[in-house]
Design brief:
This protein is of the alpha/beta class. Helix content is 31%, strand content 20%. The protein has 12 helices and 13 strands. It has helices spanning 17-20, 28-31, 54-59, 70-73, 76-89, 104-115, 127-135, 149-156, 175-180, 203-206, 224-232, 251-259, and strands spanning 5-7, 35-36, 51-52, 61-63, 96-100, 119-124, 140-143, 162-167, 182-190, 212-215, 242-247, 267-271, 279-280. It has a 6-stranded parallel sheet with strand order 7-6-5-8-9-10, sandwiched between helices. The structure holds zinc ion.
């Protein structure tokens, strides 16, 4: 049996204006999907065999050590994006961070924040997800179906609010509550706002209250080694975030579930090599 590897689907050119300014996710080469079931980049990846483009082979393949499963290893890219988000916030030890949303990405972000030495509070509408957060060592949780996360956080910070708030839920509905939960001079990270649109924001929250509105998207090649270490050393049992597994022929079903997350759905994996029926697993 040959080496087992993880292939990044995006790798920047390293030379353009954006790469020189370390905003790799804005590089034109980076935006091309470098693993493809077709003959061109972005030809799709749901296939038993994919072509890995030359620039990915060169800088975007990571050997999987003995004893680490494909399912653990495939988190190298999502973990990288989360480390990048955490770095954007420049957390200081002792700060309080609220992570809104405890889907798989919210959970990884919360775990990484905790590892950075801050006090982490997580919130979610689904109590089942908070139970999972608990099982990952995230003990301070707010059931957002019953309590206001901002109010709870203010109660825990002498009325100030969180030093940083990470919004790990898509859409625009929680942007205002995220800003409100942040202390004056604090930071708000939009991590799941991938759809263009418009939103009403109190400009004085940014100017007078000096709250910084930040964003982070996709991965950074500069953080590749750190994310590989975190994943391959099993600093977090990431496999446990996988709730559903689908064979390739049920790919549409898998995508539908991913597009409409349920309280009990976390990471959803398509296994092109398997012929079995879809399987689910209880996480908590
Ligand atoms: Zn570039």
């Amino acid at each position: 049996m040959g080496d087992r590897v993880v292939a990044f689907h995006h790798i920047p050119c390293g030379e353009c204006y954006f790469c020189r300014h370390k905003t790799f996710a804005q590089c034109a080469t980076y935006k091309k999907v470098g693993c493809t079931a077709g003959f061109e980049p972005s030809g799709g990846g749901f296939a038993e065999y994919v072509r890995v483009m030359d620039w990915i082979v060169e800088k975007g393949t990571v050997r999987i050590p003995e004893g680490v499963s494909f399912e653990q290893a495939c988190f190298v890219e999502p973990v990288n994006t989360c480390i990048k988000g955490i770095e954007t916030l420049r957390l200081q030890a002792g700060e309080t961070v609220l992570v809104i949303g405890q889907g798989p990405i919210g959970l990884i972000l919360a775990t990484l924040a905790q590892r950075a030495g801050v006090r982490v509070i997580t919130s979610d509408l689904h109590p089942a997800r908070l139970t999972i957060a608990n099982s990952f060592g995230l003990k301070l949780t707010v059931d957002a179906s019953k309590a206001d996360a901002g109010q709870t956080v203010r109660g825990m910070t002498e009325g100030r609010g969180a030093d940083a708030v990470i919004l790990a839920v898509g859409g625009t509905g929680l942007i205002r509550p995220a800003i409100d939960a942040t202390r004056p001079g604090g930071r708000v990270l939009l991590f799941a706002q991938t759809v263009r649109g418009e939103v009403t924001i109190d400009p004085a929250a940014v100017c007078v209250d000096e709250k910084a509105l930040l964003g982070s998207y996709s991965a950074s090649v500069d953080l590749q080694e750190e994310s590989v270490r975190f994943v391959m050393n099993r600093e977090m049992d990431l496999e446990r975030l996988i709730s559903h597994r689908f064979p390739l022929q049920s790919g549409v079903e898998a995508l539908n579930l991913a597009a409409h997350p349920q309280p009990d759905s976390m990471k959803i994996v398509i296994q092109p090599g398997s012929a079995g029926a879809p399987s689910t697993r209880v996480l908590a």
